[in-house]
Amino acid sequence: RKEVEQDPGPFNVPEGATVAFNCTYSNSASQSFFWYRQDCRKEPKLLMSVYSSGNEDGRFTAQLNRASQYISLLIRDSKLSDSATYLCVVNEQDSNYQLIWGAGTKLIIKP
Amino acid sequence: NAGVTQTPKFRVLKTGQSMTLLCAQDMNHEYMYWYRQDPGMGLRLIHYSVGEGTTAKGEVPDGYNVSRLKKQNFLLGLESAAPSQTSVYFCASSYGAGKYQPQHFGDGTRLSIL
């Protein structure tokens, strides 16, 4: 099985801090990359797609490093509501575009 | 504004019983998926469908069957439930499966097999 690996955490971060975590993937042919957010006992929800040039959405920045085969997510000025599990997802062209999901990184923002 | 709807939300079964999980989407998506999520693991694809009348096996298809008779519905069946099938099941749909085609999820079915 192709793998997507994440540090499970939890990352305990004070409110207002900046936090970053990475995700590594094993298939160099991977085409698309996403970050999803999953709240406790809820469904995953798309946070952002990760483009080759990197992209930003408000306080969130995603980067792709193809040479080292990892993607990263940076959260600035963290809010209590950012507490969740962040799932790294990779779309592999050679598997009929099936998504491969990481197990997630748990983030806890403390007041 | 329903999106993806799963029924039931909770179910407890005895070993050997059968049941069907229903997924319905109102976004006219071609692709639909069934996943299971277990503690400490990423979502694993059970079966998927690329259009009405088609289905395909995912990573963990054994013990499950699916049907896509209508574009908006994707059914997941457990023929003879086993304790190893205790899990949270998510249905998802997407417009396509190319680059940057995100999947939209239902809110899950929590299934316990005793």
Overall radius of gyration of chain B: 13 Å
Largest sheet of chain A: 6 strands, mixed
Q: For the residues shown, what is the average pLDDT of chain B?
A: 93
Counted beta strands of chain B: 11
Q: Count the strands of chain A?
A: 11
Distance between the termini of chain A: 40 Å
Helix % of chain A is: under 10%
Percent of residues of chain B in helical segments? under 10%
Q: What's the quaternary structure here?
A: heterodimer
Distance between the termini of chain B: 35 Å
**Range of strand content of chain B:** over 45%
Q: Can you describe this structure?
A:
- The complex is a heterodimer of chains A (111) and B (114).
- With 111 residues, chain A is mainly β.
- Helices cover 0% and strands 57% of the residues of chain A.
- Chain A has strands spanning 4-6, 11-14, 19-25, 30-38, 44-50, 55-57, 60-65, 70-75, 84-92, 99-101, 105-110.
- In chain A, a hairpin with a 5-residue loop joins strand 4 and strand 5 (44-50).
- The mean pLDDT of chain A is 91.
- Helices cover 0% and strands 48% of the residues of chain B.
- The mean pLDDT of chain B is 93.
- The A-B interface holds A 1, 4, 8, 31-32, 34, 41-46, 49, 87, 91, 96-104 and B 35, 40-45, 48, 56, 58-59, 90, 97-108.
List strands and helices in order, with pairings:
The complex is a heterodimer of chains A (111) and B (114).
Chain A (H helix, E strand, L loop, with lengths): L3 E3 L4 E4 L4 E7 L4 E9 L5 E7 L4 E3 L2 E6 L4 E6 L8 E9 L6 E3 L3 E6 L1
Parallel strand pairs in A: 2-11
Antiparallel strand pairs in A: 1-3, 3-8, 4-5, 4-9, 6-7, 7-8, 9-10, 9-11
Chain B lengths: L3 E4 L2 E4 L5 E7 L5 E7 L6 E6 L6 E2 L6 E4 L5 E6 L8 E8 L9 E2 L3 E5 L1
Parallel strand pairs in B: 2-11
Antiparallel strand pairs in B: 1-3, 3-8, 4-5, 4-9, 5-6, 7-8, 9-10, 9-11
